[in-house]
Amino acid sequence: MENIENTKELKPVLQLKNVSVSYNPGTFAVKKVSTDIYPNTITAIMGPSGCGKSTLLRAINRMHDLYSNIKTTGEIILKGKDILTMDSMEVRRLAGMVFQQPNPFPTMSIYENVLAGYKLNGIRLSKKEKDEIVEQSLKSVALWDEVKDVMSKRGSFLSGGQQQRLCIARALALKPEVLLMDEPTSALDPISTNKIEELLLGLKQNFTIIVVTHNMSQAARVSDNSMFMYLGELIEHGNTTQMFTKPKNKRTEEYLTGVFG
Questions:
Q1: Which range marks the domain in which residue 251 is found?
Q2: Number of domains forming the structure of the chain
Q3: CATH code of the domain covering residue 130
Q4: Residue 207 is assigned to a structural domain of this protein
Q5: Which is an annotated Pfam family here (predicted)?
Q6: Any residues with CB less than 8 A from the CB of 128 and at least 6 apart, and which?
Q7: Where are the alpha helices (H) located in 69-185, listed in sequence order?
Q8: pLDDT 10s digits, 10-66
């Protein structure tokens, strides 16, 4: 596991500076969160339901732009640029998102699903480029051998675990700087969950990953660093092993020991 204290000499890939998200004036789901995320690490965001963890993840992906009553303030610096001032489509290319429920586009084939981001961004590719991206992306999620002979079938043809890996491949096809995952295994069976967890450990060699999870055991298994959120505030962020064995904040300790959750 990567120790967050030993990454200070590295340049953060993502910086959150006083990030707040309000649904209505004066009603905050996220309150002035500030922290750094370092490259080639897995960061787990934990906390009880309604603590703001998914809201924070969606703010990084600019998903709140779709709702006029949601306002995000502060700075979210990705590779030196504040994403709140960037084109939202460009942000979603740089910060890929994978959701709780597998959501391959139902009318698209497996092949077309992998390339969907390029189509949405209006990026034209040659047939050779498309083939290479599809093969590389599916291999990166250990799905290529399972689907290479049925590429023209719809993504919904696949099992739940395969669909989720297809959605991860779709996000990775655009070569994002950060991969955001909102409880990516909560709808999956234990075998599929194990495959996704193994996949994440391999992907961090090339990507920076942030995972929202309600599963503390999963956070302990896969993450290098963890963030604990409570009532919209970031209570603690540090090395996962250290946080689980010797949390610095009493509320973190109470959450991890089951006093509340």
A1: 14-257
A2: 1
A3: 3.40.50.300
A4: yes
A5: ABC_tran
A6: none
A7: 88-94, 110-114, 116-120, 127-140, 144-147, 160-172
A8: 899 999 999 999 998 889 999 999 999 999 999 999 999 999 999 999 999 999 988
